[in-house]
């Protein structure tokens, strides 16, 4: 293997170590904010380290056809160490700022959608309901007025109708008496 390929491999492994350090910090920041149960954290930890190993191996395959030697591990360790010494605190601070900005942007987008879309729709919905309730009350008032007017106009006929009803009721009483005489009950037969 040529010196150029070896140098390229060591630089790639230094970069992999730094990327693994960034991934580790990113994972821990999000894990701290999520407050997951212990067994899910264990599975996520396992997936993180398996993913990191797969990334290192894929880069090794690209750079030097997958040859694994001691300097490769040394490069990964030094890359991660350099990241944690030089850039870890700055990256975590930057990551917190990005998360805060994302949360602010999310809240702002929700507020804009609420102000420009949801509130006008609710306003028109409530206005339509109020208009329908008003029209319903007006219709009820008109129907009540028409009913009272109809009762007032027909009141003389109502007394006549009551008198006629009483007269007809008196005639039907006699009919039922005659009907019972035609069909005597069983008690009278015995």
Structure characteristics:
single chain, 190 residues, mainly alpha, rod-shaped, Spore cortex biosynthesis protein YabQ, transmembrane helix, YabQ
How are helices and strands ordered from N to C? HHHH
Radius of gyration: 46 Å
Give the termini distance in whole angstroms: 130 Å
Helical percentage: over 70%
Assembly level: single chain
Extended strand count = 0
User: Based on helices, strands and strand pairing, what is the structural class?
Assistant: mainly alpha
Transmembrane segments: 6-24, 36-61, 67-84, 128-147
InterPro entries: YabQ
Pfam families: Spore_YabQ
Keywords: Membrane, Transmembrane, Transmembrane helix
Describe the fold and architecture:
With 190 residues, the chain is mostly helical. The chain has a domain at 3-129. It has helices spanning 3-34, 38-64, 70-182, 186-189. The model has no long low-confidence stretch (mean pLDDT 80). Pfam families: Spore_YabQ. Keywords: Membrane, Transmembrane, Transmembrane helix. The chain crosses the membrane at residues 6-24, 36-61, 67-84, 128-147. InterPro entries: YabQ (IPR019074). It comes from Brevibacillus panacihumi W25.
Which helices and strands appear, and what pairs or packs with what?
Blueprint: H1 3-34, H2 38-64, H3 70-182, H4 186-189
Helix pairs in contact: 1-2, 1-3
Condensed summary:
With 190 residues, the chain is an all-alpha fold. The protein contains 4 helices and no strands.
């Amino acid at each position: 293997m040529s010196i150029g390929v070896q140098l390229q491999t060591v630089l790639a492994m230094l970069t992999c170590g730094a990327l693994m350090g960034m991934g580790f910090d990113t994972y821990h920041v999000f894990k701290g904010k999520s407050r997951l149960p212990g067994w899910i954290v264990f599975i996520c930890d396992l997936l993180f380290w398996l993913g990191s190993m797969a990334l290192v191996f894929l880069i090794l395959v690209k750079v030097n056809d997958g040859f694994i030697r001691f300097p490769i591990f040394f490069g990964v360790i030094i890359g991660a160490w350099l990241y944690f010494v030089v850039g870890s605190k700055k990256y975590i601070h930057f990551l917190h700022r990005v998360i805060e900005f994302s949360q602010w942007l999310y809240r702002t987008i929700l507020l804009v959608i609420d102000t420009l879309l949801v509130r006008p729709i609710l306003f028109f919905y409530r206005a339509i309901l109020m208009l329908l309730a008003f029209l319903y009350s007006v219709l009820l008032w008109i129907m009540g007025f028409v009913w009272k007017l109809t009762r007032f106009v027909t009141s003389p006929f109502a007394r006549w109708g009551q008198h006629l009803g009483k007269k007809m009721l008196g005639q039907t009483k006699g009919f039922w008496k005659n009907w019972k005489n035609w069909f005597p009950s069983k008690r009278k037969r015995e």
